Amino acid sequence: LASAPHIIQTVAPIADFDRDPLLALHGDTLLASSNDKNTLQYVGYISSTGVYGDYGGEWVTEDSELRCRDAKSKARVLAENEWTKLERKTESLSDNSKIKGPRVDCFRCGGIYGPGRGPLFSSLASLDEALDDDCATKLSNAPTDQVPKYVNRIIVDDVCGAILAAVAGDRTRCGGRAYNLVDDDPAPRNSVVAEAKRLLIASRTSSSSGAYNGRSVS
User: Fold this and answer.
1) 19 φ/ψ sector (left φ>0, alpha ψ -120 to 50, else beta)
2) What is the pTM (predicted TM-score) of this model?
3) What is the pLDDT of residues 15-58, one digit of tens each?
4) Residues 133-157: pLDDT tens digits?
5) SS3 assignment, position 178
6) How far is Cα 171 from Cα 61, in angstroms, rounded to an integer?
7) How far apart are CA 78 and CA 60, in angstroms?
8) Listed residue (7, 154, 190) closest to 87, CA to CA
């Protein structure tokens, strides 16, 4: 780890722990490697759009206030702050710019989907169950005028592409930077599940004459 020029941190924070797990274990090593030998050049921290909290369906940007209330999202905010301090610390310790220190980017990802992950890779029965659960929740708990909770998503390939582009870039060091990695078509969870169900039924109907019976087809 002390000799790594690039680090992509994907370990999720622990809600009841006050430090990022990797920094808690190896923070001194990372700081030393970035100052003594200028080894560490880049850190990418995988965060979540959950840090913004509930905006009632309004759009948010990287400059929006972080309003999260749940423990895990708050832990992500603390982890972002701790990682970006690494960029600021290395700048303050640099000697006449001979040691640049690492750039630190925080990638706030929406719901990540891809091969084996997401509604399109679920069984039809599980999609039915998700829709039934959502309907039951609305009938029992939610006010009729409540704004649907919109969520953005992103395919894993686009996450990787954005990280590679950031690593290859050379932005001015400014104490860390955040990027929202999401698609541009937010939708409520039940709408996404319903569309996934429609697509799965259509694809299986076109390849088979069998009728959909609500069970998983392998």
Assistant:
1) beta
2) 0.81
3) 777 678 999 999 888 877 766 666 888 999 999 999 999 998 88
4) 666 555 455 555 566 778 889 999 9
5) strand
6) 19
7) 20
8) 7
